[in-house]
């Protein structure tokens, strides 16, 4: 994860269809959670309201310092280099929310972290969908422009479709238990042209909710996957 991420993505999105809310809802109250790429700790703070104990991992020193005021413990480290011997086999859930696309070797990150899950533990991993209609349209125009945030964030080192994400997880010894889709109709892509008109009329969200499940590879802004270790650690 690039250090800039800790500055750009420091808020908590409470929208029921957003990755943050879905991830928080997927973790049982009272769980021990490792929040990798915790930024300033807002997602972990929501988990603590459920009685969870949250350990954060964050490479950006400024963001890590702010997260310490919200979480039980924060380790200033990259995801691939994180190591705490006393925490091996401890965690009920490990969160990697919009993190692995910022890493040069996502498989190394997963292989490093899976040993910290307990016997019944699971990963919650989210990534932006490079095959979203907005990026397909951009490529149709012959464009590939990086931006300050979103799918085309200029700190992304890897890009994922749902298929390539599933291949990464399977190749890393993880089995997928559940896939959720975030359509995020509040993004700026839905504020322009005819879609902007639908949004202002209050018709956009119902339309996206209806069509999204039919074409998740086209309409999903992000994927959230729950995965467990399926082989030896």
Task: Set out the fold topology.
Layout: H1 5-8, H2 19-26, E1 32-36, H3 42-48, E2 53-57, H4 61-67, E3 73-75, E4 91-97, H5 106-113, E5 117-128, H6 133-140, H7 162-171, E6 174-182, H8 193-200, H9 204-211, H10 216-219, E7 222-229
Parallel strand pairs: 1-2, 1-4, 2-3, 4-5
Antiparallel strand pairs: 5-7, 6-7
Notes on the protein architecture:
It is built from ten helices and seven strands. The protein is α/β, with parallel strands linked by helices. The chain has a single domain, classed as Rossmann fold. Strand 4, helix 5 (106-113) and strand 5 form a beta-alpha-beta unit. The chain has a seven-stranded mixed sheet with strand order 3-2-1-4-5-7-6, sandwiched between helices. Residues 1-8 have low confidence and may be disordered. The relative contact order is 0.14. It has helices spanning 5-8, 19-26, 42-48, 61-67, 106-113, 133-140, 162-171, 193-200, 204-211, 216-219, and strands spanning 32-36, 53-57, 73-75, 91-97, 117-128, 174-182, 222-229.
Secondary structure class reads alpha/beta
Oligomer: single chain
Strand order of the largest sheet: 3-2-1-4-5-7-6
In the CATH hierarchy, the architecture is 3-Layer(aba) Sandwich
What value does the average pLDDT take?
A: 89
Q: Regions with pLDDT < 50 over 5+ consecutive residues? A: 1-8
Element-by-element helix/strand order: HHEHEHEEHEHHEHHHE
Determine the number of helices (DSSP H or I, runs of at least 4 residues).
Answer: 10
Count of the separate structural domains? 1
- The rounded Rg comes to 17 Å
CATH superfamily: Vaccinia Virus protein VP39
Q: Give the number of DSSP strands.
A: 7
Largest sheet: 7 strands, mixed
CATH class: Alpha Beta
Calculate the terminal CA-CA distance, rounded to whole Å: 24 Å
Relative helix content: 25-40%
Strand fraction: 15-25%
Question: Remind me, CATH topology?
Answer: Rossmann fold
Globally, the shape reads globular
């Amino acid at each position: 994860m690039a250090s800039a991420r800790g500055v750009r993505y420091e808020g908590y999105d409470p929208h029921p269809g957003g990755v943050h809310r879905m991830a928080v809802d997927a973790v049982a109250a009272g769980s021990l959670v490792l929040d990798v790429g915790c930024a300033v700790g807002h997602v972990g703070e929501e988990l603590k309201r459920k009685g969870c104990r949250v350990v954060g991992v964050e490479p950006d020193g400024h963001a890590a310092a702010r997260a310490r005021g919200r979480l039980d413990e924060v380790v200033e480290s990259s995801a691939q280099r994180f190591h705490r011997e006393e925490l091996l086999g401890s965690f009920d859930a490990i969160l990697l929310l919009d993190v692995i696309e910022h890493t040069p070797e996502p498989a190394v990150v997963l292989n490093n972290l899976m040993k910290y899950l307990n016997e019944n533990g699971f990963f919650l991993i989210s990534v932006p969908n490079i095959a979203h209609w907005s990026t397909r349209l951009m490529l149709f125009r012959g464009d590939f422009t990086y931006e300050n945030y979103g799918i085309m964030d200029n700190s992304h080192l890897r890009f994922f479709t749902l298929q390539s994400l599933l291949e990464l997880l399977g190749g890393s010894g993880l089995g997928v238990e559940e896939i959720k889709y975030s359509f995020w109709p509040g993004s700026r892509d839905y504020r322009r042209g005819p879609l902007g008109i639908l949004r202002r009329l209050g018709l956009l969200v119902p339309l996206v909710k209806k069509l999204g499940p039919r074409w998740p590879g086209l309409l999903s802004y992000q994927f959230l996957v729950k995965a467990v270790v399926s082989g030896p650690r």
